[in-house]
Specification:
heterodimer; A: 277 residues; mainly alpha; MetI-like fold; 2 domains; 0% strand; globular; B: 307 residues; 14 helices
């Protein structure tokens, strides 16, 4: 027997939630279905909804006929590079902001917040001129530096809140026991902040992996990341939706999986500031 | 001199050595150096470039024109079209994202068995790259084989396929719909966190007093999440105003100038004609316009940090 209250709950909660989940998932699910339907069939009878019409034809072509695997490699280098650069410079900065009271502290925090809001379009044009002058166009370094414009301010803010949550008395105790500031940072604060550092790093990775405009403008023939490569999968005369969908699914996979793994902790960190207000 | 010494606070008898006073700055130095290099230097460069008539493939013809680019801008009809589109773009996208996010958050805040799963699935659009989103929706909107037209024709809402992105009357709205889809999970998650911060006892007290569900929503829920709505809303206005990658991939600003927003116009101008002087002038103007909203957001956030 199903109690009336359960039926009520299903009608007023489960069904509407299901609709919203379908809305959120639908377009991507459609993309997955498209990628599983062989291209010839898409042109003839449309996307196949039943597993009978599915195949990995598009994925095989993606790996054999295009340089997609190489593009994944470029994206990986750029994303990992951005994570390393972003985290190394931000950890000490976050430590300084949360542990010391010094002249200009507020101005520096404000500066990082402000930088985070800068329009991409204001930076992208001069960065292009700058990188061209330095001969850095079409290198991994130029993309890493460009991604750092977003990664550093974000990491400084996130890490400041994580480090701030670690009691000051712990590093003071370590310093009384003979540690220097740097040693206290390395032996006490870093291990305790590690979960926060890891999720910040993963978020930087996702953003850098998904970044498109800088990769398009500053990259080129040598360094072509996944996001730029997906666009080139559009055929010359007609759009090859099957191949394109396969590229989109493979390209989106690393970031999506990482996001699902860290979402709970990350959202905790991101929403903390907003809720306190 | 000797009269001054006793007046000084006791601490200064053992002055902090300069080394420990310099320590925080040393810790901050790498981050500040990199931001100077990749943000403030280019920004200065942008302001200077905007005062020049600079076409990138003929650098020798570059000349100083003062505010010439800005004067040209105000007489440029495309600038005004793009400005209007930007206003419409922000004015529709952010409230719709917020509305849909609010509904999703209110639903997810209820008790049901698969709540954790639903919460994880709903944020999927957030993790996808703009290019993937833009191409995905181009495929959905495709006039001949797109699934949207298929469904609408099947339900006999329309008689024949609509070229959503090729028709100047629908293109901007089609892109806005995509952005709403991309951004509502962010609001859902933020608002959900806000909802969970409202004490249960308030609702209990209200229902004892006989307050209807609507009145509880108006007088407890809305005031409870108002700060979150304000912060997330401001953040989103800035984000939506800046984002041009989805439009760029979906329509490239077309058909005609129907989906040009200000940042996109600046980008296209510089990219296609390599007209960097004029392009950066548009970008700088846009940044100044956005500045007031940024200032509001920063004031709010710094106040929170103070506390």
């Amino acid at each position: 027997m199903i109690r009336p209250s359960v039926i009520r709950r299903i009608l007023t909660t489960d069904l509407p939630v299901l609709l919203i989940v379908l809305l959120a998932m639908g377009p991507f699910a459609w993309m997955v279905l498209t990628s599983l339907t062989p291209s010839a069939q898409i042109a003839q009878s449309g996307v196949s909804l039943s597993p009978a019409g599915w195949g990995v034809d598009n994925y095989v072509r993606l790996m054999r006929q295009t340089s997609f695997a190489v593009n994944m490699g470029h994206s990986l280098i750029v994303a990992v590079g951005t994570v390393i650069l972003g985290l190394t410079v931000s950890v000490t900065a976050a430590y300084a902001i949360s542990r010391f009271r010094f002249a200009g502290r507020k101005a520096i925090m404000l500066q990082f917040l402000l930088v985070n809001m800068f329009p991409v379009v204001l930076l992208i044009l001069p960065l292009f001129i700058l990188m061209r002058r330095l001969g850095l166009l079409d290198t991994h370094l130029s993309l890493i530096l460009a991604n750092a414009t977003v990664a550093i301010p974000f990491a400084v803010w996130m890490l400041t809140s994580y480090v701030g949550a670690i009691p000051k008395s712990l590093d003071e105790a370590a310093m009384i026991d003979g540690c220097s500031r740097l040693m206290a940072l390395r032996r006490v604060v870093l291990p305790l902040a590690m979960p926060g550092i890891i999720s910040t790093g993963i978020y930087i990775f996702i953003t850098a992996w998904n970044e498109y405009l800088y990769a398009l403008t500053l990259g080129g023939r040598n360094v072509r990341t996944v996001t730029v490569a997906i666009q080139t999968l559009i055929g010359e005369y007609q759009i090859e939706w099957g191949l394109l969908a396969a590229g989109a699914v493979v390209g989106a996979m690393p970031a999506t999986l990482l996001f699902l793994i860290v979402q709970r902790r990350l959202i905790g960190g991101l929403t903390q500031g907003a809720v306190k207000g | 001199m000797s009269t001054l010494a006793p007046a000084m606070p006791l601490k200064s008898v053992y002055p902090t050595p300069w080394r420990s006073r310099a320590l925080p700055y040393a810790f901050l130095l790498p981050a500040i150096l990199v931001t100077l290099l990749v943000v403030f230097l280019p920004m200065a460069e942008a302001i200077i470039t905007s005062l020049y008539d600079l076409i990138l493939w003929k650098p020798n013809a570059s000349r100083f024109v003062g505010f010439g680019n800005y004067v040209k801008l105000f007489a440029d009809p495309v600038f005004w079209t793009a400005l209007g589109n930007t206003a419409l773009w922000i004015g529709l996208t952010v409230p719709l994202q917020m509305g849909l996010g609010l509904i999703a958050a209110l639903l997810l805040n209820r008790e049901f068995p698969w709540r954790g799963l639903a919460r994880a699935l709903i944020i999927i659009p957030w993790a996808l790259s703009s290019v993937v989103i833009a191409l995905m929706w181009r495929w959905i909107y495709d006039p001949n084989t797109g699934v949207l037209n298929d469904i609408l024709v099947h339900l006999s809402i329309i008689k024949s396929g609509i070229p959503w992105l090729a028709d100047p009357a629908t293109a901007l709205y089609a892109v806005i719909a995509t952005l709403v889809w991309q951004g509502f999970p962010f609001f859902a998650v933020m608002i959900l966190a806000g909802l969970q911060g409202i004490p249960r006892s308030q609702y209990e007290a209200a229902s004892i007093d006989g307050a209807s569900a609507w009145r509880q929503f108006r007088h407890i829920t809305l005031p409870g999440i108002a700060p979150v709505l304000a912060t997330a809303g401001l953040l989103r206005v800035i984000w939506v105003a800046n984002s041009m990658d989805v439009i760029f991939v979906m329509t490239g600003g077309g058909p005609g100038y129907a989906t040009h927003t200000l940042p996109l116009y600046a980008f296209i101008r510089a990219r296609q004609n390599l007209d960097f002087g004029y392009g950066t002038a548009i970008a700088v103007t846009f940044t100044i316009l956005l500045g007031s909203i940024v200032a509001l957001y920063i004031l709010r956030t710094m106040r929170e940090v103070e506390r």
